[in-house]
């Protein structure tokens, strides 16, 4: 079996804001599970699993502040990349939902990406591939 990422877990101040952002970008995703931990190191925490049947992002409350800007030198997750079928449609859905594009990814003949920052300052990259060939999709020489 090949390994794959099943989920990433992110602690936020208000995970419902990030859920709104993700569902605006990815209408095929859903909140596939949720619950509460009454006592999580001194706090009550709500958690949500947002994704599809195969993978998800675990979002939980309990955060104390914003994520630092992605372009600074702190240690931690800089962004999460999510593959989409049609980047133009994703960008349009996010625009209609009131989210602003942070920046476009670099030029590449076999992929295109757009970066967004949510209300917690968490950055997400949405990627569309134009090839099914792994050597083209994963070409870093260009």
Automatic annotation (TrEMBL):
Enumerate the Pfam families for this protein. Answer: Glyoxalase_4 (PF13669)
**Which residues does UniProt call coiled coil?**
none
| Membrane spanning stretches | none
All copies of domain VOC, residue ranges: 4-129
Q: What is this protein called?
A: VOC family protein
Please tell me the species this chain comes from: Vibrio barjaei
